[in-house]
Structure formats: C-alpha cells, structure tokens
Amino acid sequence: MPSSFTFPRAVEGAVGPADDRRIRALCVFSGSRIGVDVRFRAAAERLGGLMAARGIRLIYGGGAIGLMGVVARTALAAGGEVVGVIPDFLMALEVGDPGVTELIVVKSMHERKARMFELADAFVVLPGGLGTLDETIEMATWKQLQLHRKPIVAVNLEGYWDPFFRLLDNVVAGGFAHPAMTQLVTVVSSVDEVFGAVANAPVPTRDVLLSHLQGD
After folding, report:
1. What is the CATH number of domain 25-214?
2. In whole angstroms, how far apart are CA 99 and each of 29, 56, 121, 198?
3. What's the start-to-end Cα distance of the chain, in Å?
4. CB contact set of 102 (below 8 Å; sequence gap of 6+)
5. Are the CB atoms for 85 and 115 separated by under 8 Å?
6. How many Cβ atoms sit within 10 Å of the Cβ of residue 140?
7. Nearest to 58 by CA among 37, 73, 36
8. What's the pTM?
9. Would you tell me the crossing angle of helices 109-119 and 130-144 to the nearest 10 degrees?
C-alpha cells in the first residue's frame, strides 16, 4: 500500500456530538448494473444532479457502467466534480470511466474502499449487488468500532433494501448486536431525503459501539 495512504484510526474518547456536517464530498455505493426497475436509474440521475447543484463532489467506484456510471455521468453533465477510485484489474477490463474529473487507480478492492473512505465526508447507498453490500457493511462496521463518525444513508428505493434490514433485525434478535445498531445507518425512501438525513444522522453512543466487545 502506498505510504501516503492510511486506514482510519480509532476516534479518541467517547463518541460525542456529531462532527462538522458541512458535506463537501459524498461517496455513493451503487450497482455495476442498471437493475430491472427503471426508477432506480431515475433516482441515480436525480442524485447526481442534486449533488452537482449543491457543489458536492461525488466519490464513487470509478466505473462507467451500471447505476454508478449513471450517477457519475449525470453529475458531470450538470457541472459537478467526480472522483472515481478503481482497482487496476478492473481498469484492465476497460470498466473505468476516463471522463471523470479524477480517476484514481489502486492495487486492490481493499485499498479502493479505504481510499473512498478517506476522500468522503459521508456515504450514500443506492441499490446494488454484492459489491455494494460489501462496501456498506464495511463502512458500518468501521463506524461500530469507532473508526469514524461519518453518516451512512441507505436509499431504500421501492423497498429494495428491506431484506437487508430484516437480516439486521435478525442479528439483533439473535443476540449478536446491540438493538441500537440501527443508529449506524440512516434509511430514507428517496434521494431527495439524502441531504437532510446526512445532516441529521445520529452519532451512536460508545456503549452501543463497544457492547459486543464486552459480551453484552
């Protein structure tokens, strides 16, 4: 890993009031496919346009395909700034988008996630597949472990993420997580709610984040 890059460090002390919520850059996790519901594409276009209108930089996975490509192209077309982060093996498959403001090529999927984390002030989750799930769960886990306080907002379009949140409920019911684990991710039903949700995302308490380490 390049010496200029570091993984996030644990936040010192108890988690207190929310950090500065002046969002300059949002990382969007979304699918490398369009999906079968045309409303997903429309939502991706809407999000890209809204971010550009607000002067918020888009951080994303660097691909020209799927919903991720839709968000990026729409933001660029509206005059927004777009930074893509993509592993070199995907660039070799010609998946990367050379038209973005900046395209950062990294060595691995692990470094990609960590680099996107480093560049973003908050995270937005649109419909997607295993990669989107992986990115979302890792950011939520880092938050649980006090590696960051950044908001994570899932856009539950047409109930797409309902099964995922039922799984989280089952994790809590099975005694493998504190009930307030839900504070880690804010759920909204439309992209128009994203910016308010980011600004008002709760900051989980220290007990919630560390209870699993204490066996509670």
Report:
1. 3.40.50.450
2. 19, 18, 23, 28
3. 36
4. 82, 83, 84
5. yes
6. 18
7. 73
8. 0.87
9. 60
pLDDT one digit per residue (tens) for the chain, 216 residues: 333 333 344 333 333 334 446 899 999 999 999 999 999 999 999 999 999 999 999 999 999 999 999 999 999 999 999 999 999 998 877 677 778 999 999 999 999 999 999 999 999 999 999 999 999 999 999 998 888 999 999 999 999 999 999 999 999 899 888 888 888 999 999 999 999 999 999 887 776 666 666 655
- Closest C-alpha to 78, from 56, 96, 62: 56
11: tokens are 């936040």
| Residue ranges of domains in the chain | 25-214
Written as six digits, the tokens of 156 are 């539950």
